[in-house]
Design brief:
This protein has about 90 residues and is mainly alpha-helical. The chain is about 80% helix and about 0% strand.
């Protein structure tokens, strides 16, 4: 009878240890899931910013094109190209 009670106590302790270790395992897996989810969001944000950067580079290229600058200089600023260009000599 005494050995049976000791066996039951030992089994309860072992089952409790298994339960506690499984809770730690579930908590670890949940932490990994959260990190992966965060990484997915960061990757999406990176892709969005990269797309925005590409769009801005294209827009910058269009705004700084020589033909656009010449058109603005002539039409809006009433500038004219000089008849003679002088250079500086050392």
């Amino acid at each position: 009878m005494q050995s049976r009670r000791g066996y039951i106590v030992l089994m309860n302790i072992l089952l409790s240890m298994i339960f506690v270790s499984s809770m730690f395992l579930v908590d670890g897996v949940n932490a990994i899931r959260k990190v992966n989810q965060s990484l997915g969001h960061l990757h999406k944000d990176y892709d969005d910013e990269l797309e925005n950067f590409s769009r801005l580079r294209l827009e910058l290229g269009a705004l700084t094109s020589l033909s656009r600058i010449e058109r603005i200089a002539v039409e809006e600023l009433n500038m004219t190209f000089p008849e003679k260009i002088y250079g500086l000599v050392d």
